[in-house]
């Protein structure tokens, strides 16, 4: 009884340590080769290894081996997995399922066309970005150049162009002009001569 318990525990630990994994491409084109690799187990632990497609046996090996499809056709599309039959006291194992899709020539051309369109759009975007960058740099350089080459003398104002009339009259205008008017000689009074004058403001 104790021996049987130890064997069960050993088998469970071995099953957890040795997990099968099927490595295969998910998409191929017609005419390409397909390689199926069943990993995660050693030869001495198995009696046979089997590859399956859609729950049907494809090939059986007595040791760890790869399965090869030389030239894929559309009918090779399907769900693939591998399994192993263990030796004494070892459990049988089954791998994950990998769905493989085989595309025809039209799909290949379509993928190439899509890739070409994407690359073309990317090239156009790059060209537009470079053009905008060069335009902004050229505009900035031309603006700085025009600001540097502008003559400083133009900033000076011509004093002759800005003449204005002051509301305050000049000193010459305030000078009185004396005009002799109504000069009368008083003959009666010979001792004094009175001259009347009026101030005329020009």
What does this structure look like?
32% of the residues lie in helices and 27% in strands. The protein is built from three helices and eleven strands, in the order αβββββββββααββ. With 202 residues, the protein is α+β, with helices and mostly antiparallel strands. A hairpin with a 6-residue loop joins strand 7 and strand 8. Strands 2, 4, 5, 7, 8 and 9 form a six-stranded mixed sheet that branches. Strands 1-3-6 form a three-stranded antiparallel sheet, with no helix packed on it. Strands 10-11 form a two-stranded antiparallel ribbon. The protein has a domain of 89 residues: Immunoglobulin-like (Sandwich).
| Major sheet summary line | 6 strands, mixed
Count up the helices.
3
**Which spans of ≥5 residues are poorly predicted at pLDDT below 50?**
1-17, 178-188, 190-195
CATH topology of one domain: Immunoglobulin-like
Terminal Cα span = 146 Å
The succession of helices and strands, N to C, reads HEEEEEEEEEHHEE
Number of strands: 11
CATH class of one domain: Mainly Beta
Task: Identify the CATH homologous superfamily of one domain.
Answer: Immunoglobulins
Give the mean pLDDT.
75
Organism: Mandrillus leucophaeus
GO molecular function: transmembrane signaling receptor activity
Keywords: Disulfide bond, Immunoglobulin domain, Membrane, Repeat, Signal, Transmembrane, Transmembrane helix
InterPro entries: Ig-like_dom_sf (IPR036179), Ig-like_fold (IPR013783), Ig_Fc_receptor (IPR050488), Ig_sub (IPR003599)
